[in-house]
């Protein structure tokens, strides 16, 4: 926000407010070896004036709506920030921000792992080993050498290599080698189904529901008309301070000025066990695999929401996309007159189970859900994740790596990513009343961890079929966390401070 409380698009990293829809992505993690060199690297990325000339992409609309050749975004772990601005400055930021804003970030993903369910196979000692860990040695137990995360988005695989080379050229050399070294990378390329490049593993159409953010110009009805997209999007607006840290006007947190116009994110590397998932959706003779997959997610695999069309995919909704509001403008209790298809209330979870992934991760108007007395708006997240690895082939050898990688963004991890994961995805009994025999168990797309304390409930997936509950046993863990980091995504001005190793005065 600027001094007039307007969104300062030029000071905010682009990925926070817009999906780029670039096909070829590289997620890179870097380690700082020399602080002065790392600061120069950050300064050059902020100004675009370094050797390779790459610059962090801000949220300004693209000129003539033409996509640039690349987009680039940056985040820092706490240990990265500490290297760059020093422990005293970090303490000042900590002491002048709400606990919810800075504490979880400073504690970091390794320490937080048991709280958010990263246990058993998903626990930190197993992280970063599958895929692109570059150094010969293992990552350290506390992951303290992971400092910077950069995401490079390009329009072709060739450009990904080209711009990656340019990025590496920007890193200053010291007498003892590069000042910053890449330690991990993961590429992401689209999964295309019937010409649609937005599918993910397990066969679902993704990239549909994102929050409608107050004050962002492409959510403005006038701009939408000019862009030629439907104006019928009456989902509640989410205050911008949920995605862009406000140091002036957020009602339920305060933050040090270094954080202004920045955000926080959980970077997640999530392996998907498609063989196990396929076995599960095929395990009940009375439930077709397509229906089972739909009940687990809350959408048919082509994206059609179950509350809109409970019995089959609905091609009349048009081409799926985040700007086709037929796929996103729906509610669970009191549908708006603009909701397409079936407009009956789904208070009983007959169409979309309470347990379904999208109902748990965004219960919308279902105020019977724990802590959802404000229409879920305070807990929304922006998802910037994409698939990695080849499409599953039942005849493949074991050990092929595939899954979802990327950032789950929100200004306050405690209100958003951590809250959703802990309270809504992980717990049964998160809705009262809940007539399902297993109290809705845990999110069925994830499945229970081996150390689950409540296997009688959590290994069963139950959905309502024609008035009675169909119970599908033997649900196992389908998703494994292979890496996680909590990141600060600074505003452009914040990045300049970081690159000088300083912080703005608290009274700014
Ligand atoms: C490999 C792991 C995951 C898979 C396969 C997956 C799959 C999906 C799919 C297929 C959708 C529906 C498409 C859409 O609405 O855009 C969706 C939506 C969503 N997911 Fe996930 N997801 C995963 C991880 C997560 C995690 C870790 C979170 C948060 C902690 C999350 C939060 C959400 C949210 C908030 C929505 C939108 C719900 C709505 O607004 O209706 N997902 N996910």
Shape: globular
Global mean pLDDT: 93
The main pleated sheet reads as: 5 strands, antiparallel
What bound compounds does this protein have? protoporphyrin IX containing FE
Please give the alpha-carbon distance between the first and last residues: 13 Å
Q: Biggest sheet, strands in spatial order?
A: 2-4-1-7-3
Structural class by sheet pairing and helices: alpha+beta
What is the succession of H and E elements?
A: HEHEHHHEEHEEEEEHEHHHEEHHEEEH
Query: How much of the residues is beta strand, in percent?
Result: 15-25%
Please give the share of residues in helix: 10-25%
- Number of extended strands: 15
C-alpha-based Rg, rounded: 22 Å
Low-confidence stretches: none
Q: What is the number of helices?
A: 13
């Amino acid at each position: 926000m600027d001094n007039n409380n307007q969104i300062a698009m030029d000071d905010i990293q682009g990925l926070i407010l817009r999906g780029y829809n670039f096909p070829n992505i590289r997620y890179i993690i870097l380690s700082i070896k020399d602080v002065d060199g790392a600061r120069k690297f950050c300064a050059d990325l902020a100004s675009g004036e370094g050797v390779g000339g790459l610059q962090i992409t801000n949220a300004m609309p693209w000129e003539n709506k033409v996509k640039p050749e690349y987009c680039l975004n940056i985040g820092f772990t706490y240990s990265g920030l500490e290297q760059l601005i020093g422990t005293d400055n970090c303490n000042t930021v900590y002491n002048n921000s709400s606990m919810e804003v800075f504490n979880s970030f400073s504690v970091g993903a390794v320490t937080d792992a048991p709280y958010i369910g990263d246990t058993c196979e998903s626990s930190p000692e197993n992280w970063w080993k599958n895929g692109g860990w570059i150094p010969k040695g293992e990552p350290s137990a506390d992951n303290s050498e992971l400092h910077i995360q950069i995401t490079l988005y390009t329009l072709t695989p060739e450009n990904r290599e080209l711009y990656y080379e340019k990025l590496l050229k920007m890193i200053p050399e010291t007498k003892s080698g590069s000042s910053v070294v890449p330690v991990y990378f993961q590429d992401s390329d689209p999964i295309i189904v019937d010409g649609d490049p937005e599918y993910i593993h397990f066969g679902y159409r993704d990239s549909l529901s994102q929050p409608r953010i107050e004050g962002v110009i492409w959510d403005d009805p006038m701009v939408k008309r000019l862009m030629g997209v439907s104006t019928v999007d009456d989902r509640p607006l989410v205050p911008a301070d949920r995605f862009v840290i406000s140091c002036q006007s957020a009602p339920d947190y305060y933050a040090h000025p270094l954080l202004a116009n920045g955000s926080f994110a959980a970077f997640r590397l999530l392996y998907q066990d498609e063989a196990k998932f396929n076995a599960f959706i095929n395990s009940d003779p009375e439930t077709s695999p397509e229906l089972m997959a739909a009940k687990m997610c809350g959408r048919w695999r082509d994206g059609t929401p179950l509350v809109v069309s409970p019995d089959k995919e609905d091609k009349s909704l048009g081409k799926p996309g985040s700007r086709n509001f037929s796929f996103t403008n729906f509610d669970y209790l009191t549908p708006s007159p603009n909701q397409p298809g079936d407009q009956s209330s789904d208070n009983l979870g007959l169409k979309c189970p309470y347990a379904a992934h999208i109902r748990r991760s965004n219960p919308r108007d279902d105020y019977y859900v724990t802590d959802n007395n404000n229409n879920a708006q305070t807990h929304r997240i922006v998802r910037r994740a994409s698939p990695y690895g080849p499409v599953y082939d039942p005849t493949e050898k074991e050990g092929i790596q595939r899954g979802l990688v990327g950032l789950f963004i929100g200004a306050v991890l405690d209100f958003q990513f951590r809250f959703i994961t802990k309270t809504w995805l992980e717990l049964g009994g998160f809705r009262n009343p809940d007539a399902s025999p297993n109290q809705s168990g845990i999110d069925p797309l994830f499945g229970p961890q081996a150390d689950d304390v409540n296997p009688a409930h959590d290994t069963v997936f139950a959905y309502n079929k024609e008035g009675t509950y169909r119970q599908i046993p033997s649900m196992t863990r389908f998703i494994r966390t292979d890496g996680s980091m909590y990141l600060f995504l600074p505003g452009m001005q914040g990045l300049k401070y970081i690159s000088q190793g300083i912080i703005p005065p608290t009274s700014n």
